[in-house]
């Protein structure tokens, strides 16, 4: 069986790095679908089934009992055979009445038509959809930035870890009227610091501006104090 390869690794990575199953803003709202299987019809079907089974057993028992007659040839009214036939007739009457009632009942009903029955609730997924959209955006941004690192780092199996080492660096932020400057502390290993500097330079070259219009500048350096 073939594995998913890159797709499998993607989901594994997202699960490890992001709360992929997190459900923000959990809320219950009234469901648009309030129909359920008719509980009355369900009960009637149970009665019909049990009554049919009872009739089958009684008829089987009747077949083993011979009729009893008086000396004049008339049937004995209190014989076991007669009593079984009467019992079968009573059950057949109940069966017919129950089947007629069942025909009048709909298959499904609204919960509002049932006494003491609470309405169905459903989970509001709007918060989850927004969270998943943001998570996907973060994933795509991470993928792009790892690609920008690749020309400056030749150890492919370490490049993702290097990216997270850079993004988790301590740093400082300074804001003025024109820009927001983010300075990350340099990584200790020269080759890793070189890749860090190149990535920060690339991000600055994008000339990203905040909603306020300030330019975003990202650099590597020591404590500015």
List the helices and strands and how they pair.
Elements (H helix, E strand, L loop, with lengths): L5 H12 L10 E3 L4 E3 L1 H25 L16 H25 L3 E3 L10 E3 L2 H24 L9 H9 L3 E5 L3 E6 L5 H16 L9 E6 L5
Parallel strand pairs: 6-7
Antiparallel strand pairs: 1-4, 2-3, 5-6
Helix pairs in contact: 2-3
Biggest sheet character: 3 strands, mixed
Q: What number is the mean pLDDT?
A: 81
The strand order across the widest sheet is 5-6-7
Report the end-to-end length measured between terminal Cα atoms: 59 Å
Q: SS-based structural class?
A: alpha+beta
Overall radius of gyration: 39 Å
Unreliable segments of 5+ consecutive residues: none
Overall helicity = 40-55%
The total of helices stands at 6
Q: How many DSSP E strands?
A: 7
What is the string of helix and strand elements?
A: HEEHHEEHHEEHE
- Beta-sheet strand percentage? 5-15%
Characterize the overall form.
rod-shaped
Walk me through what this model shows:
The protein has 225 residues and is α+β, with helices and mostly antiparallel strands. The protein is built from six helices and seven strands. It has helices at 6-17, 39-63, 80-104, 126-149, 159-167, 190-205, and strands at 28-30, 35-37, 108-110, 121-123, 171-175, 179-184, 215-220. The strands form three sheets. The chain has a three-stranded mixed sheet. Strands 1-4 form a two-stranded antiparallel ribbon. The longest helix is centred in the first third of the chain and has 25 residues, at 39-63. The mean pLDDT is 81.
